[in-house]
Amino acid sequence: MSFAALTRLQQGLATLKADHLERRRLLLDGAQGVHVTINGQRVISFCSNDYLGLAADPALIQAAHAALDQCGVGAGAAHLITGHHRFHQAFEAAFARFVGKPSALLFSTGYMANLGVLTALVGRHGEVFADKLNHASLVDAAQLSGATFTRYRHQDLAQLESQLQQSTAQDKLIVSDLVFSMDGDIAAVDALLDLAERFDAWLYLDDAHGFGVLNDGRGGLTECARASDRVIYLATLGKAAGVSGAVVAAHPGVIDWLIQKARPYIYTTASPPMLAACLLESLRQIETGEPRRERLRRHIVRLREGLATLTCGTLMLSGTPIQPLLVGANADAVRLSKSLLQRGLLVPAIRTPTVPVNTARLRITLSAAHSEDDVSQLVEVLHAIE
User: Fold this and answer.
1) How far apart are CA 326 and CA 284, in angstroms?
2) DSSP state of 245
3) Does domain 25-52+290-385 have CATH number 3.30.450.40?
4) Which of 3, 158, 171, 283 is the most buried (most CB within 10 A)?
């Protein structure tokens, strides 16, 4: 007997392949790093978010081994049962101190954190105002919250101001990536905070790609944002921090409310305490990590200077480790990515729906663990194959 729904899925997969939109998982063998084995091929990776090279750092590995003897592997229960370990508690306190907010809450993933915060803070009487280039998890969270979902053009604060003026919602929440993951640009934090204050709104900042990298490692929060009770700050911990999870920092009342109401926090097993112990060491490495950040900044300058005259794509304006090379057509971006891979350089092609139609790009991400020769090799090969 035929199965019509399965047939439609198979037709959809064929269409994705024809449109150069099919995605396949790459198989990593060994530890994460800038020199890795992918699908059996040794490559230089320019696609990891391990911006400081901490994912396989010996200090974090040692912290993991030490923690295993104290807490085992699994948490065994949700945080509100018996899963909340002293390592979780210690990391939350240390993180809050480091970023300059009064309290913090650890989530298993950034996606869960965004779902938890937005659905706990706003409902059908609220309105969420979101940058159009926000991460998918923020879009999903806003839609699931039941609030009115209003999007403004990327970084267009004049449009956002107009939307806030027209809103009659009881609760208003402005939400923005702090570093935009596909463009690499940075939100205007103080201008967003000014609007939040004028229109009595929350400001939720997702700093997935800025924490550990920007400023002194404390991320993209400004001093005004650190001091504001209406600012809620999220950092993911699987990127520059090199481990896993996410943490939200805010006024103690907000954190207490999330513990009571954030369903993705309440109704899931706590993350392994061993990971929280690793995060404590990661935080120490970030706090003393200025040499890593300086090396990363030099790589960014080297790459941008080297690709300034490239003709096969346009390097978008970004001062962060995310350096997007705008190509245009999906097929061209895929072709360029495959050509690089043939030469031992792993750089992913980013296509719709992750980015708008006709803005396919290579998303080059740099790490402090890259050498100058690694970056120079990428520049040379891109010029050779354009």
Assistant:
1) 36
2) -
3) no
4) 283
Task: Note the pLDDT tens digit of each residue in 23-73.
Answer: 899 999 999 999 999 999 999 999 999 999 999 999 999 999 999 999 999
Question: What is the pLDDT confidence band of residue 238, given thresholds at 50, 70 and 90?
Answer: very high
How many Cβ atoms are within 10 Å of 206's Cβ, its own excluded?
Answer: 31
Query: Hey, what CATH class is 58-287 in?
Result: alpha beta
Domain limits of the chain? 25-52+290-385, 58-287
* Those residues with Cβ within 8 angstroms of residue 298's Cβ, 6 or more apart along the chain or in another chain: 372
Q: How far is CA 66 from CA 53, 71, 73, 242, in A?
A: 21, 9, 12, 17
Edge to edge, what strands does the sheet with 171-177 contain? 103-107, 246-250, 231-236, 202-206, 171-177, 126-131, 148-152
Q: Name, in order, each residue with C-beta under 8 angstroms of 259's C-beta and a sequence gap of 6 or more.
A: 79, 80, 105, 265, 266
The average pLDDT across 317-331 equals: 95
Query: Is 90 exceeded by the pLDDT of residue 386?
Result: no
